[in-house]
Amino acid sequence: MSVQSKVDALAAARDEISGSKAYQRLAKLFDEGVFTEIDSFAVSSSGYAEVVAGRGNIGGIGVFAYAQNPDASGGAMSKAQAAKIRRVYELALKTGEPVISIYDSIGGRLDEGSDLLGAYGDVLRYSSNLSGVVPQISVVLGPCCGTQALIAVNGDIVVMSGKGQLTLNTNGSDADAAANAKHGTAHIVCDSEDEAIEQTRKLVSVLPSNNLDYAGSAEFDEADSSSDDKIKKLADGGSVIELQGQYGTAFSTALATVEGATVGIIESREKIIDRRSADKAAKFIRFCDAFGIPVVTLLDAERFECIKSAARLSGAYAEATTVKVTVITGEAYGAVYIAAAGTGAAADMTFAWAGATISGLSPEAAAVISLGDDFGGALRGAADPRAEKANVIAKFKDEQLGAEKAAADGYVQDIILPDETRAKVIAALDMLSDKRVTTLPKKHNNIW
After folding, report:
1. Rounded to an integer, what distance in angstroms lies between the CA atom of residue 274 and that of residue 392?
2. Contact at 8 Å (CB) between 45 and 79?
3. What is the distance between the alpha carbons of residues 265 and 427, in angstroms, rounded to a whole number?
4. Residues with Cβ within 8 Å of residue 368, at least 6 apart in sequence
5. Which member of 21, 85, 243, 260 lies 3.0 to 4.6 Å from 187 by CB, making a disulfide possible if both were Cys?
């Protein structure tokens, strides 16, 4: 073959690859559509490997990404595809840069037989080993079924478009984005493919590149001080990215920036914390801790619904060595206070709004035990015993269970006004920015 023939063949090959849907998706993902391809001409049994991979910048941050190519054998997993993806993971580990995986595949190449099992196993193993080292974002834009769904969910954050399908069972009826959002499998659901890619770019902008890096930006907009939403009032304007918003709704979990620094925010939005909500918050804390992202908790809850999930949440708080700041905005009783705000959570700073109630028991139980016979005596002879009971408990809460009493006993570091929350949190984060903690020599706790 002549030199010119080789040049023409190379040009034709490049045109074929760059014209594929996978290549175009990566071009939308990276700044100015520019990226360096990895193993561009790797081949499978029927042509080029069913994935396009490369490294480029997102907002100036170096990122590795691969996109399954539905234009090549439907994006089916193969030995060649797995080898190409493995190369991406190897380079990400060496350089400490995030990995974005875009899924759109009909499944696996059945003609490769048992070799297909090895291909899937390699990708899953590399992804698992990289977990907690660099952020991994899975973007589901088409079919993602069976073992590939397992690999996708192995990522730290799952973003789905309206056309995404994610399920272990290829005949699953709950594969669409709405169902995955409801079950907590999808962290973010977008109407369109372009929106999903844009949300992925936004995530990269707030996440650290790796577990030794700092996350944040020098530029930020002031918080919306007029908002009724506690998270928006705390975070920089336009920075809030809520995760798993339709799952475990007793807690809201979000990534955001506060004066440009990335934080994870947990806000209780119901008085009773159910199992899913506690597990969701626990997983979010572990994610933030893995990448050194401070956790700010806005707490107003009375009790847990499930003791096992409460233990998981308490264990996640206790084991996390990242900065932890808690603001009690309403009520915090017993296990809820201990797990998320007290010594059990190893919170670095605990604030309480003026008017907050902090108690080892529910106010009614605390009043009955503390007042003894005086509690029953106050109700006897009352024209409306029920109303009188409420009055007695309310008075006991005000006098004995207020933030002032907790602060006097050292369980709250400061009592603040709601409008002071952002300033106080900023000051605490600044004070704790150089926090260093030495932990016991172990792999991890076993509270799960």
Report:
1. 29
2. no
3. 16
4. 375
5. 243
Distance CA 216, CA 316 (A): 23
As given in the structure block, the two tokens for residue 249 are 């709704």
Helical H segments across 188-306, by residue range = 193-206, 230-234, 275-290
Nearest of 285, 273, 272, 292 to residue 315 by alpha carbon: 285
Q: Which residues contact 142 (CB under 8 A, 6 or more apart)?
A: 68, 70, 75, 103, 104, 105, 163, 164, 165
**If 0-12 CB within 10 Å is exposed, 13-18 middle and 19+ buried, where does residue 34 land?**
exposed
β-sheet with 51-58: strand ranges across = 35-37, 51-58, 61-68, 99-103, 136-140, 157-160, 188-189
- CA nearest to 253, candidates 336, 263, 319: 263
Could you count the other beta carbons within 10 Å of the beta carbon of residue 436? Answer: 5
The one-letter amino acid at 243: L
Question: Residue 9 above 70 pLDDT?
Answer: no
- Our measurement of the distance from residue 25's CA atom to the centroid of its chain's CA atoms, rounded to an integer in Å, reads 24
What stretch of H or E contains 56?
Answer: strand 51-58
- Of the two residues 267 and 39, the one the predictor is more confident about is 267
Cβ contacts of 263 within 8 Å, gap of 6 or more: 235, 255, 256, 257, 293, 294, 295, 296, 429
**DSSP state, residue 75:** G
Instruction: Identify the three-state secondary structure at position 2.
Output: coil
Q: Stretch 337-361: mean pLDDT, rounded?
A: 89
Q: What is the mean pLDDT of residues 165-192?
A: 90
